[in-house]
């Protein structure tokens, strides 16, 4: 859908409202150059597959700064979803809602990162709007990740990943306000730089806590040289571990539930924002923002399973053995040791929140598939992202394909009204989507 004038913009908005969804036109996924595309080609039900061999050379297009112009949501603007689905406004007037997690009783915990608080929205199964809207805790430092512990029907704690530490609140099922002050679990996390938000997740057996920490920079600018030399540094640390200003960054850290450090799970993951464990397989997944500055279609963001001891390339390599031109020849020892991510996503989409569908409302073919929020590009000539995608899994493993699922947040080449961040499965099986540009949460039913 193209919009080149004010009148056509409003026509586009009317079209968004008139139809609940689109069926998706093609039976095979878009591949190659066609899979890259931009917002104008987005359509619910459209499948894509980006393969490592499809990637252009660095600098094939110039790198541009093209940040979005965020505008108020037009009163009639409603996102688009596939045929058979319905989307409606669940909550509005929030202050930058980001990550969401659903308690066993159905309460929706929402991180409002900027104001430093966690909000609770309560809605009975089937309700299209919450009946309660309360602040669970405030005075936090850029909170993002939320996790209930232990898993199951009777958690005792709510863990919150602040930008600088992990804390937990004592919790009894149904609490809508914290009963006391937070307890510090991890006293210090790497902080500052480009990527401030942290996420966390627990293994299904509740024995290990994972915490994702993004890089301090785009491409390790200012990292310097390792103390004692590269060989000495590498011999004593996990494969691909960064140093200096990037120490303990661009990867996933491991702790026990009480905060005792257990090492580094994986390295070379520039900014794992969406961190979650698959409810069936138990695999840990990252939804990852890759680096900027190499052109419109480099480097693809990605969603991948994260294996212990694995190295995913940042900053020296990307998507396998592709060497970053800004680090040519620096780490020949790492060539051939880089794990290629499972699902490559249009570059600069800013893949954020991630969840896996474990509800009963959607058709059976959705069971176990992923949903990821794409916050939207700033480093691309024509916008990508600004949508929610579905990650296809088969026999418990990603196929490499993904599908546009929720679109319609972009008005024209300049203006956007919505930037998706969080995704969560509600107690009744609906899918919830937060966006932080206009402070809304959307509810998708089938």
* Helical content class: under 10%
Helix/strand/pairing class, anyone?
A: mainly beta
How many helical elements?
Answer: 3
Question: What is the terminal-to-terminal distance?
Answer: 25 Å
Q: Architecture in CATH?
A: 6 Propeller
CATH homologous group name: TolB, C-terminal domain
Total domain units: 1
| Strand order in space, largest sheet | 2-3-28-27-26-25
Describe the structure.
- The chain is mainly beta and 446 residues long.
- The protein has a single domain (6-445), classed as Neuraminidase.
- The protein is built from three helices and 32 strands.
- A six-stranded mixed beta sheet has the order 2-3-28-27-26-25. A four-stranded antiparallel beta sheet has the order 6-32-31-30, with no helix packed on it.
- It starts with 5 loop residues before the first helix and ends with a strand.
- Mean pLDDT is 94; it is low at 1-25.
In short:
With 446 residues, the chain is mainly beta.
What's the layout of helices and strands?
Layout: H1 6-18, E1 21-22, E2 30-31, H2 33-36, E3 47-49, E4 69-70, E5 81-82, E6 86-91, E7 97-102, E8 108-112, E9 117-122, E10 132-137, E11 145-149, E12 157-161, E13 166-170, E14 183-186, E15 198-202, E16 209-213, H3 230-235, E17 251-255, E18 261-267, E19 272-277, E20 284-288, E21 301-305, E22 317-318, E23 322-323, E24 343-345, E25 351-356, E26 370-374, E27 387-394, E28 397-406, E29 415-416, E30 420-425, E31 431-435, E32 440-445
List key phrases describing it.
446 residues, Neuraminidase, six-stranded mixed beta sheet, 3 helices, 32 strands, 5% helix, disordered N terminus
């Amino acid at each position: 859908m193209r919009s080149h004038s004010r009148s056509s913009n409003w026509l586009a908005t009317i079209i968004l409202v008139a139809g609940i969804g689109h069926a998706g036109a093609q039976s095979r996924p878009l591949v190659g150059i066609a899979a890259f595309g931009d917002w104008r080609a987005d359509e619910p039900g459209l499948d894509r597959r980006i393969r490592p061999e499809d990637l252009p050379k660095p600098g094939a297009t110039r790198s541009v700064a093209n940040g979005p112009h965020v505008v108020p949501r037009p009163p009639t603007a409603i996102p688009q979803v596939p045929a058979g689905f319905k989307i409606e406004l669940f909550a509005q007037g929030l202050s930058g809602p980001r990550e969401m997690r659903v308690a066993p009783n159905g309460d929706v915990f929402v991180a409002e990162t900027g104001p430093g608080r966690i909000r609770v929205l309560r809605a009975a199964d089937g309700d299209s709007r919450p009946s309660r809207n309360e602040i669970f805790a405030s005075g936090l430092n850029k909170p993002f990740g939320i996790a209930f512990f232990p898993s199951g029907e009777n958690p005792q704690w709510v863990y919150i990943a602040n930008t600088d530490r992990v804390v937990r609140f004592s919790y009894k099922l149904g609490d809508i306000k914290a009963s006391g002050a937070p307890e510090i679990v991890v006293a210090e996390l790497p902080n500052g730089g480009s990527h401030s938000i942290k996420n966390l997740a627990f293994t299904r057996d509740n024995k290990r806590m994972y915490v994702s920490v993004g890089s301090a920079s785009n491409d390790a600018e200012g990292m310097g040289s390792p103390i004692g030399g590269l060989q000495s540094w590498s011999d004593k640390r996990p494969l691909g571990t960064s140093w200096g200003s990037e120490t303990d960054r661009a990867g996933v850290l491991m702790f026990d539930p009480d905060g005792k450090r257990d090492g580094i799970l994986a390295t070379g993951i520039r900014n794992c924002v969406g961190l979650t464990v698959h409810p069936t397989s138990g695999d840990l997944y990252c939804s990852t923002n890759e680096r900027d500055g190499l052109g419109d279609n480099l480097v693809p963001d990605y969603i991948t399973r994260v294996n212990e001891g694995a190295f995913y390339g940042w900053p020296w390599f990307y998507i396998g053995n592709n060497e970053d031109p800004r680090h040519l020849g620096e780490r020949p020892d790492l060539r051939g040791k880089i794990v290629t991510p499972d699902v490559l996503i249009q570059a600069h989409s800013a893949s954020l929140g991630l969840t896996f569908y474990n509800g009963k409302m959607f058709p059976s073919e959705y069971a176990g598939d992923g949903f990821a929020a794409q916050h939207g590009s700033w480093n691309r000539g024509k916008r990508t992202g600004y949508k929610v995608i579905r990650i296809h899994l088969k026999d418990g493993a990603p196929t490499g394909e993904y599908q546009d699922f929720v679109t319609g947040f972009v008005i024209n080449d300049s203006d956007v009204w919505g930037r998706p961040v969080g995704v969560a499965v509600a107690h009744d099986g609906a899918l919830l989507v937060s966006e932080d540009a206009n402070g809304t949460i959307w509810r998708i039913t089938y």
